[in-house]
Specification:
This protein is of the alpha/beta class. It has helices at about 45-60, 70-85, 85-100, 100-125, 170-185, 200-210, 225-230, 245-255, 280-290, 310-320, 345-360, 395, 410-420, 435-445; strands spanning about 10-15, 15-20, 25-30, 35-40, 130-140, 145-155, 160-165, 185-190, 215-220, 240, 260-265, 270-275, 300-310, 365, 385, 405-410, 425, 430, 450, 465-470, 470, 485-495. A seven-stranded mixed β-sheet has the order 14-15-16-13-12-18-19, sandwiched between helices. It has a six-stranded mixed β-sheet with strand order 9-8-7-10-11-21, sandwiched between helices. Helix 2 packs antiparallel against helix 4, helix 4 (about 100-125) packs parallel to helix 5 (about 170-185) and helix 9 packs across helix 10 (about 310-320).
């Protein structure tokens, strides 16, 4: 069966499809079957430079940043409609290109970003001018005279935005960069992961269909040298990146000489705290899904499970009793709850961490193997460790696979201390039958978000981002577009 969008063989630059000068292509692999689904174009520095130049011209000379917010919103509504019309093709691509299960493709990776898209359009129409109070002051030029004046604060687009996105949720993260950047009036150079290029290139088709002005959206691919060019070029005003902590640190360094605005959504090692009074079955169910969702390839997933020692055996027993329902399988099958890792190199990395956990003295409670019934695909079984010390590598490092660890505690203060003993601070959770105590503990956690007793993961007004090495800035929420704008004060006298 032909996979949608995998016939795209060009990059999208300045409103046109452009073949890379090198003619190079890379095979794109279905991680569940190891079959090649297409050969994507690979850009180089020439294409990166052309994309940056097109975005710069479009911002400095083109109509997009000078349009009213209402006019840009009209165009972006057309983009939303075009994506909605292609919903099934996009979901099919997610499954084949990224190994996303049908359930995730339906809800978290398609419906949610489309809902956030709608919310952002509405937010973009809020007044962008804030009036300062009218005040009096002595004249600096005329003795004994006084002046009356006021002013306004306006928000303006930053300029050219370089957006670099990962493989684990490409449609969601592509939209999370493009939507606020474009609504705010910026122009964009988008570079996706080489594992999931088609989820970005499809936006070139959308841009042409809705009449986005040339140069407003440019989509390129390429290696680390291409990424360095778009993060360091003086013509780029902002970099927005979702990915690993080491790459985020490198991007900060690359942008530092030109003092770029940088929005980073990086890694996590989120803690799920299970108090002694928790509903163990409910907590274990969430804990299991946190480890297994998208085969553990999620930066906000809770993989450190801090469980009160009085209920720790029961918690692990409940998890083990339920793990069979999450057996890895073909993500195209609607009944499958867990798909593969993106590539074999990712699976081998997971296996090294599992070996290290055993070597450091953690007890392998279950998992730690490849599923025997699947001969092809980059699958790995849900794996849980017990008797874990928070100083161990499996407790401190982002594994980005279906591996969790259970760490015991005896008091709430100890749980908070362990949760905060991490270089990351992206998300977390608490299970307790005392919601007031859980809330008070949540206030003490050094993390960008906390979910109590399963919470609600789909609040459009909830900002998302991390403390510490989990990133800089916030996505979503009421101030999402502000990350892509800057403030200007305009002061003036009243009267003569």
């Amino acid at each position: 069966m032909s996979i949608p969008y995998t016939r795209i063989d060009s990059l999208y630059i300045n409103g046109a499809w452009v073949r890379p000068e090198s003619g190079q292509t890379d095979a794109v692999i279905n991680p569940a079957t190891e079959a090649v689904i297409g050969h994507a174009p690979v850009g180089g520095l020439a294409e990166a430079d052309a994309a940056i130049a097109a975005a710069r011209r479009a911002f400095d000379q083109g109509p997009w940043p000078r349009m009213s917010a209402e006019a840009r919103a009209t165009t972006m509504r057309a983009m939303h409609r075009a994506l909605a019309e292609r919903a099934e093709q996009i979901k099919t691509l997610m499954i084949a290109e990224g190994g996303v299960t049908r359930a995730l493709a339906e809800r978290m990776f398609y419906t949610r970003p489309m809902t956030l898209f709608e919310a952002a359009i509405a937010r973009s129409l809020a007044p962008s001018v804030r009036h300062l109070p009218v005040e009096t002051a002595p004249s600096p030029f005329i003795p004994q005279a006084r002046l009356l004046g006021g002013g306004v604060v306006v928000r303006e687009p930053l300029g050219v935005v370089a957006a670099i996105t990962p493989y684990n949720a490409p449609f969601l993260t592509n939209l999370s960069k493009l939507v606020p950047a474009l609504l705010a009036g910026n122009t964009v150079v988008l570079k996706p992961s080489p594992y999931t290029p088609y989820s970005a290139l499809l936006f070139g088709e959308i841009a042409s269909e809705i009449g986005l002005p040339p140069g407003v959206l440019n989509i390129i691919t390429g290696d680390a040298a291409v990424a360095r060019r778009i993060t360091s070029d003086d013509a780029v005003d902002m970099v927005t990146f979702t990915g690993s902590e080491p790459v985020g640190a490198a991007i900060l360094a690359q942008g530092a000489p030109t003092i770029k605005r940088t929005l980073l959504e990086l890694g996590g090692k989120s803690a799920l705290i299970v108090r002694e009074d928790a509903d163990i079955q409910k907590a274990a169910m969430e804990g299991l899904f946190q480890v297994a969702t998208h085969c553990g390839q999620g930066c906000a997933l809770a993989t450190r499970h801090l469980v009160h020692n009085a209920v720790r055996p029961a918690y692990l027993q409940a998890m083990q009793a339920m793990v069979g329902m999450l057996a890895p399988g073909n993500p195209a099958d609607p009944a499958t709850m867990m798909g593969p890792l993106i590539r074999n190199v990712a699976r081998e990395r997971v296996e090294r961490f599992v070996e290290q956990g055993v070597a450091e003295g953690a007890r392998l409670a279950f998992g730690g193997t490849r599923p025997a019934h699947l001969e092809r695909g980059y699958f790995y079984n849900v794996t849980m460790f017990d008797d874990v010390d928070n100083r161990m590598a499996i407790a401190q490092n982002e594994i980005f696979g279906p591996v969790g660890c259970v760490i015991g505690f005896d008091s709430d203060d100890e749980a908070v201390a362990i949760a905060n003993d991490s270089r990351y601070g992206l998300y977390g959770g608490i299970h307790s039958r005392d919601p007031a105590m859980a809330y008070e503990m949540a206030l003490q956690l050094r993390t960008g978000g906390v979910v109590i007793n399963g919470g609600l993961y789909q609040l459009a007004d909830a900002p998302f981002g991390g403390y510490k090495r989990s990133g800089l800035g916030r996505e979503y929420g009421e101030n999402w577009l502000h990350e892509y704008t800057q403030e200007k004060s305009i002061l003036f006298p009243v009267g003569l």
